Amino acid sequence: MVRELYQRLREYFNNLPEPTEEEKQFIRELNAGDFPITSVHRDDLEGKGFDVKKISDNDMQNLAKKMADDYHEQLFWPSMEIIAGEILGFPKVKTKDIVCPKCNSENIRYDIHESRFHCDECPLAWDDKLYVLVEFPEDSAPFEEEGTGYPAWESVDNGALYVSEEDYVRHTGKSPERDKCYRAVCWPDSQKYMGTKGCDPIQDENGIRDFGTSAYWVPLLLMEEAAGQRTDKKKAPVCPECGGTDIDILSDEGVAVCNGCHLEWPYVED
Ligand SMILES: [Zn+2]
Ligand SMILES: [Zn+2]
């Protein structure tokens, strides 16, 4: 409804023979490139059992605004990307001419579920959001010459650089070791890594330009560990005797001990 109305208003104003100054302003705003998505009506509320006689236009405005904010924060971006890209097949700008850093093939596809590029000519796959810590001086020299990479600040090894996985493969011909891989975590997600061992603040000019202030280099393994711990909790062991879940696992002895009934049983973590 609101979409058609907006479209009709635009046509009406665009076809005014001699628009006033005020009308010209409306024409500019109506042609600014906005396309309304949806609206909320009292009938929608009534359909869910609300007493619409007690709900003012101001209340409706407030509801519409809060629903718009909520949509924008949660579903707007993924929904737009899926419908525009996968369903309607809207073209995307080629960011730059992406070639495989290993074999130079231009036959590259991006897997949005994995967030990785895949080369169709060789088995290489890489992540354009992944960075590799290269140490000074032997490993970092080719990157320094090229002027790529971000300097490491608190790394033991002064002169070390964080370089993109793509650049790393291009120069070394191999994929990086996972324990050398990092992600740039931006504010506010970076808060939980402040002062964490192995995490490095991003303080150089280019780093701040690309990732903002208060961003951190966080080891990939640390991020995966944090994600893994959350899943571990879900399949916590249960005591076969009393059904308790307050269980200590002594992995070096291969047993689990129930803190409720003190039963001890063989247990191997998978
Ligand atoms: Zn390739
Ligand atoms: Zn028990």
Automatic annotation (TrEMBL):
Organism domain of life: Bacteria
Protein name: TFIIB-type zinc ribbon-containing protein
Organism this protein belongs to: Bacteroides xylanisolvens
Classification of source organism: Bacteria, Pseudomonadati, Bacteroidota, Bacteroidia, Bacteroidales
